[in-house]
Amino acid sequence: MSAVPMIDAQRLSLMLNELRLPTIKHIWGDFAAQADKEGWPASRFLAALAEHELAERDRRRIERHLAEAHLPAGKTLDCFAFDAVPMISKAQVMALCAGDGWLEQGANLILFGPPGGGKTHLAAAIGLALVERGWRVLFTRTSDLVQHLQVARRELALESAMTKLDKYHLLVLDDFAYISRDQAETSVLFELISVRYERRSLLITANQPFGEWNRVFPDPAMTLAAVDRLVHHATIFEMNVESYRRRTAQARRTGAGRPATYTTPKVLETIRDNQNENDDLASDNQNRH
Ligand code: ADP
Ligand code: MG
User: Fold this and answer.
1) What Å distances lie between residue 191 and 30, 65, 112, 279, 280, CA to CA?
2) Are 136 and 168 in contact (CB under 8 A)?
3) What does pTM read for this prediction?
4) Where does 82-244 sit in CATH, by number?
5) Tens-place pLDDT, residues 6-20
6) Domain boundaries defined on the chain
7) What would you measure as the largest C-alpha separation in the chain, in angstroms?
8) Among 77, 140, 244, which residue has the most ligand 1 atoms within 8 Å of its CB, making it the best to mutate?
């Protein structure tokens, strides 16, 4: 009580505004009263204020990152049934959610599987966990991002649009194989993959295995070069399960599901082998077509 009248509280508020310390501005009165009452040393009082300002700053930053991430609502790890995708290790997913290691190296994560298998859910849940740990994430449908980059290209601002995406440690490209076959579109996608290669991570979900990506990139050399960069440092999850919705509906009716029928064609192994050899892309593609 005694310290407060000796300072100009209004002037202190202005100074704290100027210093951009809104939390301290908000709490210093109560803390000062408590410190006076309990006889805190001045250093303890100052440290308590600083700690609160920092904690609140972290909270606000994560809130901002969550808003900018555009994650689909309600898709969390807590409500993801790992037993529905027995080929995926929960421990491995949890390790990826820490972000260290792979995001620092700009490594990628690729989720394959038929529609309804939980790719979007898992991608969003991993994105959310990463944001909560302080990483920056942008979740987007691939076709929306391609459209955005195409507009930027027309306005001669493609480079700055790509640079703006650099602030995201992880870019989630949902439904990668759904984009239309247009040369201009796919080349912006190819440029994005090249620009982020070994620097910034991508999380890609796709219904179509690599063997079908020639429908995404009309030029087979471009497909191979894109896949080559994507898989060079990548974790690949193959979620070869039947639609979760259909299975849960079916289980309600009959109590059982059908076995998965989806497989990744041999081309994946072919691409993995080629990647080590670093063959001439053109001759390689001639051999394959
Ligand atoms: P995909 O992107 O592979 O087509 P989604 O992630 O959109 O599949 O999943 C379809 C629906 O089923 C969503 O509502 C999703 O939340 C739910 N779902 C899928 N897999 C699981 C799972 N393992 N646990 C809980 N919900 C799931
Ligand atoms: Mg999906």
Assistant:
1) 55, 25, 22, 21, 20
2) yes
3) 0.80
4) 3.40.50.300
5) 678 899 999 999 999
6) 6-69, 82-244
7) 87
8) 244
